[in-house]
Amino acid sequence: MAETVSNKHSIRGKIKKKIFRYIQILLCSVLTVGCIFPLIWLINFSLLKANELFGPKFLVWPKNPHWENYRLALTDGKVPQYLVNSVIVAVVSVSLIVILSVMMSYGFKRMRWRLSNVFLNIVLLGFMIPIHATLLSNFITFADLKIQDSYFALIIPYVAFNLPQATFIMSGFMDTIPDAVEESALMDGCSIFRLLFTIVLPILKPAIMTVIITAFLNVWNEFIMAATYLTSDRYRTLPFSVYNFSGMYSSNYSAQFAVMALSAFPSLIAYVILNKHITKGIAAGAVKG
Prior knowledge:
The structure is a single chain. The protein starts with a helix and ends with a helix. 71% of the residues lie in helices and 0% in strands. The chain is flat, with a radius of gyration of 25 Å. It is built from 11 helices and no strands. By secondary structure, it is mostly helical. The protein folds into 2 domains: 2-46; 68-288, MetI-like (MetI-like fold), CATH 1.10.3720.10.
């Protein structure tokens, strides 16, 4: 009798696990479709003619794709020129963010000094400062320094606003490194900088990859600061390409969708390549930070 009851409980437990598993699969499928559909919708609209955008159907795949939109995006939208500017700003900004966050987190977490936690908390207060609160003051400062319309007008605030998040992730991951690793290296006569860049840096690879992808996405898609500080085409970044097809009375929406598709492609590739490192890095920063 007891064996029969236990068998019934085990069968019920297996059924509940299967039902829960199916619910998880269903929810994940819905979320996946919700994440992928905007990209499909964007590509679809980028291949339509302007007069085909407004119709009764929400999603219509064109029988004859209008590739002219992408040609206009590359020529009239100045995508190649703005793409070079975006790459320069993104590479320099992300490199500085990674280097500074690694050095700061190492100084706050591994070097023993009295006010390390105080200064770490001061850096993390940057999470609370909105971008809009600094636009006017930065604009005036950059104008006085004669760097308003330049790469520096974007790189400096991009590094400043992404550094708190990067330091938070790096600091949390830094706590997971055993002290014995550094102690043995120091006993062998390793200097601080060699210890940091040859021993600690490889161990921080998951956190570094997380910082790279998050900082890259923030820098690549940012437009408010770029629109405030930049005034000439020489330094404008990729989001400005959309505005080249906007007029006072009419706009070429198909070309705008083509520009947005081209702008999203690099960040999508970067996310796919580095995606496996993101969860590990963020989890370590959230648990240990």
